[in-house]
Amino acid sequence: MSPFQGLSAFPITPADPEGRVLTDDLRAILRRCAEAGVDSICVLGSTGGYAYLDPDQRRATTESATAEIGGQVPVIVGVGALRTSMAQSLARHAQDSGAEGLLVAPISYTPLTEDEVFAHYAAIAEASDLPICVYDNPTTTHFSFSVTLLRRLAAIPTIRAVKMPLPAAGAFAAQIADLRAALPDGFSLGYSGDWGCGASMLAGADAFYSVAAGIWPARMLRLVRAAQAGDAAEAARIDAALDPLWTQFRQAGSIRVVHRAANLLGLSKAQPPRPIQPFGDDPALRGAMDALERI
Description:
This protein is α/β, with parallel strands linked by helices. Helix content is 47%, strand content 12%.
């Protein structure tokens, strides 16, 4: 089965100020996600701080994840890197470590052309047999994938999914319909941006890639399962309970919020990688976390 289906949890990578991974904390967070029954776990996504870790720290994270939960829950590994050769090396390592999928963002200092992005993905696909999810994250990469480029990439056999930002005005159904018509059958369409989880899954998305699920996997799984079952009323009820958390995500940035939540829940004392500053002890976050108990 494809690892790019259902709810994918995106945990933090707890690390010390030098980026050394706090392995025990990471494994505890991963176990929490696995025991909740999420459909996959992606380490080294944006929330996992991959851009702030050196290659050896990233490899250590991958090895810890596959050792802890490999064979129980599909492990997806983020292998985006500035240099194509580094992304290839990380992809090979992920496969050798037992990962079941790759997430690739086209990160770059110099703006990339579509041909450059295509060649980058093609080279990563040559380096590994693992299925690849294209990470369309224009907020951080300053690159947006056109339908034309996605169609070209989908012709590469191991490129099987896309993780997209939320569409303007919540136009999930229209975007999904357009992409279904343009891309091969079975190509997985997924979103990120947690406040769009219920709506995107109700509209027929194949997957949701969730920051909140890395800390509150059971709550997010209830939302996704309700939406997958077409239970709009239950999805709306859960989403309403989560709304205070979504407000915190939008205002402060989810990476700050979930690190602080991990502190408050006793999962880790790790702080976000600098220069990102820790989230303060905001009573609104504690209130948002209390609201989760209603789910």
